[in-house]
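Appendix B: a complete holo record

For completeness, this appendix reproduces one full record from the ligand-bound portion of the collection. The bound molecule is nicotinamide-adenine-dinucleotide. The inputs are the chain sequence and the ligand SMILES; the output is the full three-dimensional arrangement of the complex, encoded as structure tokens. No fields have been trimmed.
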Amino acid sequence: MKDNHWKSRKVVIIGAGAVGSTFAYTLAQSGLAEEIGLLDANHELAMGQVLDLAHGQAFFPSVQIREARKADYADAHLIVITAGSKQQPGESRLALLQRNAKIIQNIMDEIVQQNSPAVVMVVTNPVDILTYIAHQRSGWPRGRVIGSGTVLDSARFRHLLSQHCGVDVHNVHAYILGEHGDSEVAAWSMTNMAGMPIEQYCSLCGKCDDWETSRRKIAEAVKNSAYHIIDYKGATWFAVGLALTRIAAAILRNQNSVLTVSAVLEGEYGLKGVSVGVPCILSQKGVERILQVNLTPEEQNALAKSATVLGEIIAQLGLPGPAFPR
Ligand SMILES: NC(=O)c1ccc[n+]([C@@H]2O[C@H](COP(=O)([O-])OP(=O)(O)OC[C@H]3O[C@@H](n4cnc5c(N)ncnc54)[C@H](O)[C@@H]3O)[C@@H](O)[C@H]2O)c1
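The structure of the chain with nicotinamide-adenine-dinucleotide bound, as generated:
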């Protein structure tokens, strides 16, 4: 097709596997993007996903869905990276991380080479480490390179609290901070039901005998959510697709939404040299501001511990700086 004139609100998704294609599907349904480009190292897969999605165009709000090329980075609003390798038999986690780090660095080099004005969102796991690597490689302001962070974990937290308390999930406000992974932190001090702190709600509700035990179980269940789904069906893709669409809405519609994306810290929460999930104001520029919430000393310590876990892995990688320093 000769026409490569992309309009505004263009999103390029790199990696057309389970997560990338589900995100494309939910994004197309949302009507947020006028153009969605899918790019994958496996050209046949990308083409198959594009055709399958494009055949739904009669049912979507108006949207163009095409295979993207690297040149499309040049006028994309948002570039979402879901590309990654799977663990090979016998491969260590660190070796897999090194391979995925290389993939992300190469992709960032290509995006920077195109002089892209986009906000880049990393989704590939381990998302916080790869976000840090992507930002470091780009040489861009930190707000323009974000990770999907703990937006999905926070949604899982809200779902479980909603089920436990018997309250509509939309009236449950709750945040997971830190690593998208085992060291994540349930920020109970930020949790409220329709504006009522959770402890206050609990004393009114009186449904459970032992709130301390319930609290622990809920936080554990959030942490283990992905493992359960992976045991059942091999991977997760629906809820993450929706979480990514929520983040995309904040960026494409310039909403100034507060979402716990992964952001590179420069002293916030007393931390630096890592990217972790923290409450951020998100607009068309990416992270406008990192909100420093007054956490309890216990939560602050847990967040610092989570950042240390990630910082130690980053140090093991011995990363080079930006390929195109500016
Ligand atoms: N951050 C989150 O909340 C979250 C949630 C779920 C999954 N994930 C992660 O998202 C990633 C993707 O998961 P998936 O289930 O879609 O995996 P998948 O294997 O289905 O898809 C990955 C795709 O990336 C492609 N790819 C590999 N290298 C590439 C490159 N250099 N350029 C372009 N494409 C390339 C592969 O061909 C493949 O199609 C994984 O790392 C997964 O752990 C993150």
